[in-house]
Automatic annotation (TrEMBL):
This is Nicotinamide-nucleotide adenylyltransferase. Pathway: Cofactor biosynthesis; NAD(+) biosynthesis; deamido-NAD(+) from nicotinate D-ribonucleotide: step 1/1; Cofactor biosynthesis; NAD(+) biosynthesis; NAD(+) from nicotinamide D-ribonucleotide: step 1/1. Its main location: mitochondrion. SUPFAM superfamilies: Nucleotidylyl transferase (SSF52374). Its EC number is 2.7.7.1, 2.7.7.18. Catalyzes the formation of NAD(+) from nicotinamide mononucleotide (NMN) and ATP. Can also use the deamidated form; nicotinic acid mononucleotide (NaMN) as substrate with the same efficiency. Can use triazofurin monophosphate (TrMP) as substrate. Can also use GTP and ITP as nucleotide donors. Also catalyzes the reverse reaction, i.e. the pyrophosphorolytic cleavage of NAD(+). For the pyrophosphorolytic activity, can use NAD(+), NADH, NaAD, nicotinic acid adenine dinucleotide phosphate (NHD), nicotinamide guanine dinucleotide (NGD) as substrates. Homotetramer. One of its GO terms (biological process) is NAD+ biosynthetic process. Its cofactor is Mg(2+).
């Protein structure tokens, strides 16, 4: 983890419905920078090492290439209202995410989206984090005691941006809200033409930060589920605790499960 992030030695929230802030840094070390929190949305079915690496890559990128100071990171798994065939129940996905981040200094798992009984567009998920962090917790405190709002940013892979640039996939209002109000840190993914995807999002270019993958990693949840259905090993592709949880709960064994598409959560269906 980057050295400019100081994790708080606090216990996780006592209630699964409480907003987690035990690894959220609320006091800035670098007052000249803009405090920032990364939020990754998706099914995480199951969570992989690439999902976790995205946070580390984003942290390094922010530290060396921007004027942001990372204060924390969140996984926000989708709920069962957004469930498709073969997608493990929200309770399983939440638990796997929690197991995966146990050793992290700054990544937390928020239950709000997963526990909601209705579909929630990504724009509203980011609004939720903005409310909890800036209105409820009061944002970040500078060394001189003054407080400033923490910037909330969507963290995603390049394939998500590709769907954003595809007409009709996302609600125009939601897309405008996400990229104009919050912005996005986008991690390059093999097989995705990021320049082509960004060409139709030029109006938001100043709010989109592209992070190159120096070490290529194309592991995906879809491939992990395929491995499991074929009874192939997934060790060293996902955290060991997640492997053990999947085996203990006999997850992802169904045959004929179609590929799950969790992108385009801003489309006008919710």
């Amino acid at each position: 983890m980057a050295s400019d992030i100081s994790a708080q030695a606090a216990a996780p929230p006592s209630s699964e419905n409480a907003f987690p802030s035990h690894r959220l840094t609320l006091r800035q070390r670098y007052p000249e920078k803009t405090p920032l929190v990364l939020v990754a949305c998706g099914s995480f079915s199951p969570i992989t090492y690439l999902h976790l690496r995205m946070f580390e890559m984003a942290s390094d990128y922010a530290r060396f290439n921007t004027e942001f100071e990372i204060m924390g990171g969140y996984l926000s798994p989708v709920g069962d209202a957004y469930k498709k065939a073969g997608l493990a129940a929200a309770t399983h996905r939440l638990r796997m995410c929690e197991l995966a981040v146990e050793s992290s200094e700054f990544i937390m798992v928020d239950h709000w989206e997963a526990k909601n009984s209705s579909y929630i567009p990504t724009a509203l998920v980011l609004d939720h984090f903005n409310h909890e962090i800036n209105e409820v917790l009061g944002g970040a405190e500078k060394p001189d005691g003054t407080r400033v709002p923490i910037r909330i940013v969507l963290l995603a892979g390049a394939d998500l941006v590709q769907t954003m640039s595809t007409p009709g996939v996302w609600s125009i209002d939601d897309l405008d809200h996400i990229l104009k109000v919050y912005g996005a840190f986008i991690v390059e993914r093999q097989g995705t033409d990021i320049d082509d995807a960004l060409s139709s999002l030029e109006a938001y270019r100043n709010n989109i930060y592209v992070i190159k993958q120096i070490i290529q990693n194309d592991v995906s949840s879809t491939k992990i589920r395929l491995f499991l259905r074929r009874e192939l090993s997934i060790r060293y592709l996902v955290p060991s605790a997640v492997v053990e949880y999947i085996e203990a709960n006999d997850l992802y064994k169904a045959e004929g499960v179609p590929q799950i598409e969790d992108k385009g959560k801003g489309k006008a269906v919710g």
